[in-house]
Amino acid sequence: MNPRRLRLGFILAAAGMLLGLVLPPSGRVVAPLTERPILFALTVAAVLLFAAAAWTGGSRAIVPGIGALSGAVTTLALLHDAGIGSSAAAGFWAMVLAVWLGAALCVIELASRRPGGGTSRRVLNLAVPLLFGAIVFYLWEVLVRGFGVSPVILPAPSAAAARFAASLPTLGQDLVQTFVRGVLIGYVIGCGAGLLVAILAHRFAFLGRGLLPLGNFFSALPLVGVAPIMVMWFGFDWPSKAAVVALVTFFPTLVNTLAGLSASGHMERDLMRSYGADYRQTLTKLYLPAALPFIFNALKINATLALIGAIVAEFFGTPTQGIGFRISTEAGRMAIDMVWAEIALAAIAGMAFYGIVALAERATTFWHPSYRT
Amino acid sequence: MTSSALAFPASGAGTWRQHPLVVRYAPIVTIVLALITIWYVAAVLMNLALVRGGFEREETPYTVSELIAGTMSAERPLLPAPHQVIAAFTDSVFGYVPTAPRSLVYHSMVTLSATLLGFALGAVLGIVLALMIVHSRVLEKSLLPWIICSQMVPILALAPIFVVVLGVMGLQGLLPKSIISAYLCFFPITIGMVKGFTAPDPMQLDLMRTWSATPRQVLAKLRWPSAVPYLFASLKVAITISLIGAIVAELPTGAEAGIGARLLAGSYYGQTIQIWSALLASAILASGLIGLVDLAERLVGLRMGARP
């Protein structure tokens, strides 16, 4: 982004904040911003900081960053006024636009920077998406509450967060039911079975030639559809969920492990033979280590598949707990904030699961070219 | 499964065994046959108690062969035998006019239309996102991590909310399901296309620069052609995910038509044969859709001068 446009953007942001001081913040009659000392000070600070950023050409992202932050705090605090929430008017939206513009310019400035050092690059790579996410959440919050969107359609993130904090015991129960019992057990069974069958199929080429196309075919099928059958066979409790998860995770593991087991080169196999290694030694010392990147690829795919499988299986019947059960019943009762809290829970569980698998991959396949920098 | 598969090539070396068709298809056929055998055995074992209970309730004497025949033709078996599934499938496909609510063709069409619309939306969204990411460093750094994170989230969990919310907003039927499909399937396309658009190596990009090509020309003449293989690989993944999305979107809201609705109705009323034939229909749909993408890939490849 060239400096002139950056400067223009920050001037616009400062002007927007000024407009917020002048124009009425709400359609109804409320106290103007000039009569709220703290918010007034924050707004003026934001105007000054944006102006300073425009003056220096925005070479330091921290200055407009603090400006955008104080502007954001002002608008969020204004929303707490009953007269402003759901009937916000031009002054308020001018400030929101200014905050958005200022923050977006900061992100753009940060993202186009090319730092030399390793640590600063890592910090930047983390900070940019986090800031981006913060802007998205801010806009979501402000738009929902400023326009007074019905909580049935879309609750504000703060409402979902409050519900999350208020119903921790329920969420904990659901997590144990769905994740610990359904997902983890099924995941271990499915991936373990896939691994064993893949080793067998690799040992006996005939079996492999038959299983590979079938495995490819099955892993393309909508296997979650077997959920009603599993519920019928294994009952409403976690065994049926574990069965669905096991089935869903089996085929990706099989296909990927088979590909990985044949990934070792001719030279290495010849070397093992020249050492006089028997099959078991070759398997543990050559085939399996060489297959690890492929196996972890499957494990990572399966981490998300497993959670989806368990949640979908709960749509077909559960004891009265579990993430999928709660989502479908609360959606039916129009308690959308609770649904979002459950989704946040599922998201956190999913990311943590994925993260743990990825960490295990780092720890065991550190020798792989893709990790050597 | 293993024993019958292993018994086959044990001894002797007839010339027909080296025939490429035999080498290629014999293992598949063997394993499919083994699976069907296992299925029949399992059907007998799992339905045995059910059928025996039925006989004993009516206090009629029964023989073993009657018992086994009973397990193959029970009305609501725990596990229907393959021929029952096939019979129910052909009956519900050919037995009714395609618009009748009992026809599986009708339900498949409902799901298929949601799948295709969602797939089209997802493909467009995925490609547009990839274009934006490739052309903007800011988006690459700020948006891409979130897109990747969004895939660690069980997105299907969002399905009921979408359907409910869009229902409140007055949208019903096809569109909510398609949006879920699109949301699920845009990701592999975005990732694949980002890889594809960045596949040209620096030499080629430099060459374009020496010809003073505009970014649009670079896109049209270099980036697009090199992204085509990636496009089709990701489309194949995306279309099956899109089908899964359409089916699952029908589940939590009690949709009236579609394969998911058939699954749900079957599980409510214990109609196992109906569930299995709906599953068969979804399998056929999935392989048909992949086949179509495959065909498109080949045609495009021929147009672009690939050797068959």
Explain what the structure shows:
The complex is a heterodimer of chains A (373) and B (308). Chain A is mostly helical. Chain A has 2 domains: 3-149, no CATH class; 164-371, MetI-like fold (Orthogonal Bundle). Chain A contains 14 helices and no strands. The two termini of chain A are 30 Å apart. In chain A, 45% of the residues are buried. The model of chain A has no long low-confidence stretch (mean pLDDT 82). Chain B is an all-alpha fold and 308 residues long. Chain B is globular. Mean pLDDT of chain B is 80; it is low at 1-12.
Q: List unreliable stretches of 5+ residues of chain A.
A: none
Q: Give me the strand/helix succession of chain A.
A: HHHHHHHHHHHHHH
The oligomeric state of the chains shown is: heterodimer
Helix content of chain A: over 70%
Q: How far apart, in Å, are the first and last alpha carbons of chain B? A: 37 Å
Number of domains of chain A: 2
Sheet of most strands of chain A: none
What are the key terms here?
heterodimer; A: 373 residues; mainly alpha; MetI-like fold; 14 helices; B: 308 residues; 13 helices; 76% helix; disordered N terminus
Question: Can you give me a brief rundown of this structure?
Answer:
The complex is a heterodimer of chains A (373) and B (308). Chain A has 373 residues and is an all-alpha fold.
